[in-house]
Amino acid sequence: MNKRRNLISFRTLHREWMEDPEFRREYEVLEPEFQIAKQMIGARLQRKMSQEDLAKKAKTGQAVISRLEGMNAQPSLALLKRVAQALDIKLRLTIS
Q1: Given CA atoms 87, 93, 71, 76 in this order, what sign does their dihedral have?
Q2: Domain contains 96
């Protein structure tokens, strides 16, 4: 009874979803939050820091860092600057 599942790659699925105009619109709306979260998590993990460690260095709470990484917040520029400084990285903003 070994049933073989037909698996689809994420790239294929993503490509199909992006053909849906409604999905594409929402995806593009969330792109800035996704980039912030992705880059923050990557920098934090590269430095072997916990959310709590980062929060202390950025003078904020661990829950704030969790919300940023979970894309559940709209951070101020001041907070992003503190987080970047705590991670010892540059904050670059691009508007296109």
Answers
A1: positive
A2: no
Domain count, the chain: 1
What average pLDDT is seen over the chain?
93
Transcribe 9-31 into DSSP letters. Answer: -HHHHHHHHHTSHHHHHHHHHHH
Does residue 12 come out as left (phi exceeding 0), alpha (psi in the -120 to 50 range) or beta?
alpha
Q: Say what the pLDDT of residue 2 is.
A: 63
Full residue range of the structural domain in which residue 58 is found = 10-87
Determine, yes or no, domain membership for 23: yes
CATH (domain of 23): 1.10.260
- pLDDT above 60: residue 1: no
Full DSSP string of 32-76: HHHHHHHHHHHHHHHTT--HHHHHHHTTS-HHHHHHHHTT-----
